[in-house]
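Example record

One chain of 286 residues, shown exactly as stored in the release files.
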Amino acid sequence: MDGLWKIGSIKDILGRHGFTFSKSLGQNFLVNPAVCPRMADSCGVDAQSGVIEVGPGLGVLTCELARRARKVVAIELDERLLPVLDETLDEFGNVRVINGDVLKLDLRQIIADEFGGMDVCLCANLPYYITSQVIMRLLEERLPLRSITVMVQKEAAQRLCAPMGSRDCGAVTAAVHYYSEPEILFKVSKGSFMPAPKVDSAVIQLHVRQQTPDLGCDERQFFKVVRAAFAGRRKTAINSVSMSLGIEKERVAAAFAAAGIAPTSRAEQLQLQQYAALTAALYGGK
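Predicted structure tokens for this chain:
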């Protein structure tokens, strides 16, 4: 269906279906006609590949993906939008809408059942309140995805894609860099949505690593140390790790020294390999 981004069309469709916006689900529908085509082009989907979308809303991005992909699977939590999507996606025979929670569905099974060996990516305008949870689930489960192209709050984009060792870096940044190569593609103003959110957005792309870096230590312990270091951003990393993990400061300080990390370092100043060396010093290698 054309013109889904027009405010008049949105009001007409929603009015006919008796739909009202849900703040708790973070529903903001795009009214900027340039955004969705650009997202669909950026994700790299083509006539031989498949794409998963999370939170299709009215189906504006879904239509653009359906015009480019062999198959689209759109996951929508709000069952009130199902009849709306039946109408707006009626012309496309290559779209399947699944009513469910992306944080609870068996995504690996969905990919296996729906795409039959196709190259698959994910492209979505993510609800702000579940951005980090969704991204981390997609990465941690090592799903067979080539890339993840999502629109998120601008501040979240800066945090997720920040270079390791920079001021914006956080625990989630380290995880994103471990599992993927992230980049910010373009910014989207808050006026591009209805209703307009309070902040601007940005589209980011995570190029999923087919093989994660060899850390030389246990992966779970590595992320345990990373989270501990960032738990007290105002503290030195030594103090934060010691307090968060309940390990004597002297032992943590010795591990920092063994890893070649300055005792005054803060969590955001460290690189992945420094965290790996610290983890190995604290708990031993693999």
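Notes: The CA atoms of residues 18 and 80 lie 9 Å apart.
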